[in-house]
Amino acid sequence: MTRAATLDRHAPTVLSVLRIVAALIFMAHGTQKVLGFPAHPNPPGLMTLSGVAGILELIGGALLALGLFTRPVAFILSGEMAFAYFIAHAPRSFFPVLNGGDAAILYCFVFLYLVFAGPGPLSLDALGSRGRSPR
């Protein structure tokens, strides 16, 4: 077996690992905004734009970490990150490294990838689809 074939064999599992790690790190942004952990210097109100983003990050991040409703949740979170970039970061500077929006761009495209790639085998979505005939 070639190295490429070995790597290809593990690609679905690594997709799940990418989803889980990205979701847990993303979820930390929501816990900070909604739960105040880790400490947030100026916690937003829940009915503000930042508060709604925090709710999406907390709940959406948890759903992605579990791999539940992965594709629709990833689609929503990808859109949230695109929106966040253009509302909060792009007005500061054209360059992402200067406007602090590089994480938002990265999350946007990782989540967009998950819309198309799915959750991988280590997910509740995959567990729920076992036993069903493929369409």
Automatic annotation (TrEMBL):
Subcellular location: Cell membrane
Name of the molecule in the record: DoxX family protein
Lipid bilayer topology: Multi-pass membrane protein
Pfam families (alphabetical): DoxX (PF07681)
Alphabetical keyword list: Cell membrane, Membrane, Plasmid, Transmembrane, Transmembrane helix
Protein family according to the UniProt entry: Belongs to the DoxX family.
Organism, scientific name: Methylobacterium nodulans (strain LMG 21967 / CNCM I-2342 / ORS 2060)
Main location: membrane
Regions crossing the membrane: 46-66, 73-92, 104-127
Transmembrane found in the keyword field: yes
InterPro entries reported in the protein's UniProt record: DoxX (IPR032808), DoxX-like_oxidoreductase (IPR051907)
Example of a GO cellular component annotation carried by this entry: plasma membrane
